[in-house]
Amino acid sequence: MEVESVESLTPLLQPLLQEADQWGEVLLLLLLLVGLEAVLSADNAIALAAISRRLHDPVRQRMALNLGLVLALIFRLALIALASQVLAFWPLQLLASAYLLWLCGRHLLGKDDGADDNGAGQEAAAADPAAPASHHGPGHPHHGATLGSIVATLALTDLAFSLDSVSAAVAVTDRLPLVMAGGVIGILALRLTAELFLRWLEIFPHLETAGYLAVGLVGLKLLLRLVLPAVEVPEWALLLVVAGLFAWGFSLRMESSSLPGPGSGDA
């Protein structure tokens, strides 16, 4: 009698068991996508933190990060929705590669040093006439950097990085809702990580350069994928290089007496 009861319940339980298996698979894939986003976005977070530092006021830095990443989220979701068309559109990949390489080269050539928020500098000078004037003249690339320009730069930078992370995510699963969920969680994690890097960039002087070198590495990866599609660079090799760059970035720590005080504009 008991066996018959169990057998009679099996057809009823089968859909529930299948649904449980599906939810387990979904959860596993989501965790994998979030982990993938976290691994691939470390260099992105440094780049976003370095860009937002051009606004020396911490309040404006956070506002720029918030607005920039809201735009970045919209761009990323659109990219995921159109992944099959966009990822096959080589001019966009070429532009993204050129942009990331330009960001890296601009920093390494010394044109990205000591970004200046002109408005904040003028306010500080008005409040304290004895304070030293900004050392960036009108010809400096960051002289007069505005909140709007920084927000746009943040959104475009994340979009360029997203071509790499979205292509990796789509390779894991073709379930767009899952990839989108991973992208949303990735943006939230990116916001928190960028906040941490804003503090660390003040403490570790090599970290910004290490981050930009990693940005250039992603740009080279996108370019190599276009020029030599048959050449497959192992992901572990790239991660190993990025880990080495980060180790160098954290290798030198500034003394406490050398750190800028709260609200200071100079890095």
TrEMBL record:
GO CC list: membrane
Topology with respect to the bilayer: Multi-pass membrane protein
Bias type Low complexity, positions: 119-136
UniProt keyword list: Membrane, Transmembrane, Transmembrane helix
UniProt record similarity statement: Belongs to the TerC family.
Localization: Membrane
Chain intervals for the UniProt region annotation (Disordered): 119-141
Protein name per UniProt: Integral membrane protein, YkoY family
Pfam entry (one): TerC
InterPro entries, per the entry: CHP03716_TM_YkoY, Integral_membrane_TerC
Signal peptide: none
KW Transmembrane (keyword) present: yes
PANTHER family given in the database record: MEMBRANE BOUND PREDICTED REDOX MODULATOR (PTHR30238), SLL1022 PROTEIN (PTHR30238:SF4)
Transmembrane intervals: 26-51, 63-82, 150-172, 178-198, 210-230, 236-252
